[in-house]
Amino acid sequence: MFVREPLRKGRASIVDPMRRLSVPFCLFALLPALLSASEPVPKPADIDRLWALRAEGSKGGHALSAPIDLTIGACRAALAAEPESLELRWRLMRALYFKGEHTTDDSVAKRTLFDEGRTAAEQALSILRREAGRGARRDLGEATPVELVPYVKGNPAAVPSFLWASVDWGKWALVFGKSAAVKQGAAAKIRDYAQAVILLDPAYDGGGGYRVLGRLHHQTPAVPFLTGWASRSQALRNLRLAVEVGPRNLVGRQFLAEAMWDYESSRRAEARAMLEKILAETPDPDNLVENRKTQEEAGQLLREWAGR
Q1: Residue 27: what are its φ and ψ, rounded to 5°?
Q2: To 5 degrees, how large is the angle CA 99–CA 215–CA 184?
Q3: Is residue 288 part of a domain?
Q4: What average pLDDT score do residues 290-304 get?
Q5: Is the C or the N end of the chain the one with fewer CB within 10 Å?
Q6: Residues 247-252: contacts with CB within 8 Å, 24+ apart?
Q7: In a domain, 93, yes or no
Q8: CA 24 from chain center: how many Å?
Q9: 303 and 209 in one domain?
Q10: In whole angstroms, what is the distance from residue 150 CA to residue 136 CA?
Q11: Which residues contact 255 (CB under 8 A, 6 or more apart)?
C-alpha cells in the first residue's frame, strides 16, 4: 500500500530498528520512548513506514496492538506540533479504525477508539471549512462535505480525510447503537462524506466512496424524515460501481455479495460464488490483516447461507 521510502542521509529514523525482518517484539516497547524523543517530530512518511508494520505478529484477521499503537502515537505526537495538518489527521483516523477493527473485541475499547476517530473526522472537516473559506473569501463554516467539493479539489488530503471520516463514523454508529446514531445524524454524515469522495476521486481506495455509500444504503433502514433516502437500488448500484472500479478489493466484493443475497434472490448462487472466490484469493501482503479478516467473514457467511 505504501512504499517504504529510503530515509534522507544523515537523519535518524524512528523506524530504523523495525526495518529488519523478524524483529524482536521487545523493540515495540522501546519505540514509544524513541518516538517521544525524536527530533524533528514524525512526518507523514515516518507514519506511513510505521503503518506498513501493522501486520507484524498478526494471526488471521487479528492484529497485535503494539505495532499500530506506534502509528497512533506518532500521529498524536505530530499533531501536537502541527494541529492543523490534514495529512496527519487522516492518518490518525485510519490508524484508529485499524486498531478498533482488528486488535480488540472489547466493546468499551472499540467505543473509545471510534469515538476518537469520529472526533478527528469532525476536526478535519472544520479545518477544511476554514481553509476553503479563506480561499473563497466567504463563510463556509456550515458547509457539508459535498458543498466543500468545489473548494477542496486541489487539496490532496481532502479525499482521504473524507473517506476515513466516513469509515470512522460508520464504526462509531455500530458500536454506540441506533439511538446514539440517530441523535448525531450519523447516517447523513456518512452519506455526505462518501458522496464527497465519489465527486472528488471515484477510484480512490478501490472505489472507497462507492463502497461506503453502498454499504450505508444496504445497512440503513429507511425511516421517514430521517433516512428515507436509504435505497435498495442505490445499495446495489454503488456496490457494483465499487467492484467495477476496484475489482481486487475484497471488502467491496463481500459487501456486494451480501446485498445481492438480501435483495436479489434469483442471484444467490452468484453471491455465494463471489464469496468462494474471496476465500480462494491470496491475501495482499500490503493489506494482510484486512484481507484475512474479510476471508474469515466470507467463510462465516457461507456457513450461514448453507442449505438456503
Answers
A1: -65, -30
A2: 70
A3: yes
A4: 98
A5: C
A6: 248/206, 248/284, 249/205, 249/206, 249/207, 249/211, 250/278, 250/281, 250/290, 250/291, 250/294, 250/295, 250/298, 251/211, 251/290, 251/294, 252/206, 252/207, 252/210, 252/211
A7: no
A8: 29
A9: yes
A10: 10
A11: 211, 214, 215, 218, 239, 242
What lies within 8 Å, CB to CB, of 244 at 6+ separation is 207
185 vs 289: CA distance, rounded Å: 31
**Residues 120, 185 share a domain:** yes
Task: Say what percent of the chain tops pLDDT 90.
Answer: 80
Q: Which domain holds residue 30?
A: 1-83
Q: Is 96 inside a domain boundary?
A: no
Q: Which three cell numbers stand for residue 186?
A: 450519523
Number of residues in the chain: 308
pLDDT tens string 233-266? 999 999 999 999 999 999 999 999 999 999 999 9
Same domain, 217 and 180: no
